[in-house]
Design goal:
alpha/beta, binds FE2/S2 (inorganic) cluster, FAD-bd_FR_type, metal-binding, 21 strands, six-stranded mixed β-sheet, 2 iron, 2 sulfur cluster binding, single chain, Ubiquitin-like (UB roll), Rossmann fold, Elongation Factor Tu (Ef-tu), domain 3, globular
Length: 462
């Protein structure tokens, strides 16, 4: 008997054109406003409780926390979005500390979801998370929010992902999502890290690149000296490096996440290799204008009929009332983003060092005795700072306060992360937040000065 040793060629994978998220069909099948709102509901920022079911240490001093909703519902989100989480850092009876973290898992596996937190030296919340969050712990969440996400439908689906340090988190969600879906795609990830052992998810990324011909991953060590047998690229992000990994950068949708300095140079170099502004989506810049407008319109539309839906559905997890259309998405590179050299080892989504505002004010003196600075028809009295700041209606409170030298911790500056939250003791503000504050906090007199303007004179605990 003759045994043939000729291998039969494996035919190329046949794929449908482009990439389509599973929920896109639901959107398309619901032309009526009420139907569309029902379909959109899961993406509407909601407040819910989730239980930690697993913690997984990652390279680069990062920790993945796998969660599931305690109401048993799946978490509907778009790949790249994030959650605002209340951490009981000072104990169960104290005011929790809110921080925003990108979801690192794929929405195509919605029954559990994950955030990945980098431990920051001196970072109050990230340290606490690493040391205290364990299976069984239940955390209060708000979200999902964010316009930095993959589109629901992309006929071309050609992407360049630029990640620096912990900025890989939302991009990891995107790459996992693309791998889990059928459809033509062409994804190149260029991932900068500080040292060979600091690339989180690298084993999984290598696996995905080896089994999915649509995915390619390149690593670069920034400008650090190379140790051991490093075989990846070396050097900061340059136009030449982008050109090397994606000679066809023009025409790709670029998603970049990392510290501000890294994103600044990326913007520069991307234009040099022919990538149009409208194709660039950045986590600290909230995505392209088109994406922002699309997202704002989408949620504004849902907001119009949210009450009708809420009345019609007596669900256990009601959507958080949204007082304004979601506008843009921004997780700033963070005040801990010390590295502006493109290596991003200190990048963290929202772990701010600034002091957390508290509800109790120790009145140092009468506002009438404070020094007054600035100009404007209204007066803001900052009790802790002992300063009166003049402001005009329509002028943003955080900006005016900062200009006057008042320290208020702020991260996103878009009403999303909650880090600038302070207490208003009297007066009215017009707030256009984007999920960074809970309804009960507003009732308790708190507000986000980064997205608020003064309507009357104000007395503030800051
Ligand atoms: S700075 Fe993020 S909500 Fe104000």
């Amino acid at each position: 008997m003759t045994v043939s040793t000729t291998l039969t060629a494996i035919p190329d994978v046949q794929r449908i054109r482009g990439l389509e998220m599973p929920w896109n069909r639901v959107f398309q099948s619901t032309p009526e406003p009420a139907g569309a709102a029902r379909a959109l509901w899961p993406w509407y920022p909601q407040e819910f409780l989730a239980e930690c079911v697993e913690t997984v240490p990652e390279a680069g001093d990062m920790l993945t926390i796998v969660l599931r909703r305690i109401d048993g519902a799946p978490l509907a989100f778009r790949s790249g979005q994030y959650l605002n989480i209340a951490f009981p850092v000072d104990g169960p009876d104290a005011e929790p500390v809110n921080r925003s973290y990108s979801i690192s898992s794929a929405p195509t596996q919605p029954w559990t979801f994950a955030i990945t937190v980098k431990r920051e030296e001196g970072g109050r919340v990230s340290q606490w998370v690493h040391e205290n969050v364990r299976p069984g712990m239940v955390l209060d969440m708000l979200g999902p929010v964010g316009a930095f996400h993959l589109p629901d439908m992309d006929r071309r689906a050609r992407y360049l992902f630029l990640a620096a340090g912990a900025g890989v988190t939302p991009l990891m969600s995107m790459i996992r999502t693309i791998h889990s879906l059928p459809g033509r795609a062409d994804v190149v990830m260029l991932y900068h890290g500080a040292e060979p052992g600091a690339f989180a998810f690298s084993r999984e990324l290598e696996h995905l690149a080896s089994v999915d011909s649509r995915i390619k991953v390149y690593y670069s060590l920034g400008d650090r000296s190379v140790t051991g047998t490093w075989q990846g690229m070396v050097g900061r992000l340059t136009a030449q490096m982008i050109d090397e990994v994606v000679p066809d950068a023009n025409g790709r949708q670029v998603y970049a996440c990392g510290p501000e300095g890294y994103l600044d140079v990326a913007t520069d170099f991307l234009s040099k290799v022919g990538v149009d502004d409208t194709s660039i989506h950045m986590e600290s810049f909230s995505g392209s204008r088109a994406t922002r407008l699309e997202y704002r319109d989408e949620v504004a539309f849902a907001g119009e009929i949210a009450e009708e839906i809420a009345a019609a559905q007596d669900e256990a997890h009601e959507p958080e009332p949204v007082t304004a259309a979601l506008d843009l998405y921004q997780i700033a590179a963070g005040t801990e983003a010390k590295a502006d050299d493109g290596t991003a080892e200190h990048y963290e989504t929202g772990d701010v060092l600034a002091a957390e505002p508290t509800a109790s004010a120790e009145t140092p003196a009468e506002p009438s005795s404070f020094e007054t600075v600035g100009q404007g028809s209204l007066n803001m009295s900052f009790l802790r700072s002992g300063l009166n700041v003049r402001i005009d209606p329509g002028e943003e409170i955080l900006a005016a306060a900062k200009q006057a030298g008042i320290r208020i911790g702020a991260n996103c500056q878009e009403g999303m992360c909650g880090s600038c939250k302070i207490v208003k003791l009297s007066g009215d503000v017009d707030m256009h937040h984007q999920g960074g504050i809970r309804a009960r906090e507003i009732e308790a007199g708190k507000f986000l000065p980064c997205c608020s303007t003064a309507q009357t004179d104000l007395v503030l605990d800051a």
